[in-house]
Amino acid sequence: MIVTLGLLSALTVVTLNMFLPSLNNIAREFGADYAVVNLSIAGYAAAAAVLQLIVGPASDRFGRRPVILVGLLVCMAASAGCILATDIGSFLLCRMLQAAIVAGYSVSMAVVRDTRAPKAAASLIGYMAMAWAIAPMLGPMLGGFLDETFGWRASFWAFLGLGAALFC
Hints:
This protein has helices spanning about 1-15, 25-30, 35-60, 65-85, 90-95, 100-115, 120-150, 155-165.
């Protein structure tokens, strides 16, 4: 369970920054200004902030597991949308929808607090925080490798695959 929750937390961060080395190639392919492509970061962050307000109460009302699964499904569908995007507008919309994975972080923390004594919960949250610290360091490096080797869509294929693996 802890590995899954840690990976969910890490996926939240990785989807934010792994594709950053690909921004130039995305702008070039869509014929868009680099500043417009940068909106994919701001849109994701804004959507994640708003979703934080929704995810917590939704997980209290409907349960932790359904909210995490819906967040994963929306993120996977949005990743597929980014892969299939033919214009910058649809790419930006799908990129913003990827922020649904934020449920993975906030609900994972709630699961730990719900299922463990306070001292044990603090220890597990520390391990999950390590995933949050390591993911932003490794994400851009992996994203740059994927972009150089397979093209900019490879990062979104990775998001789709990681989401599917965690869904199962």
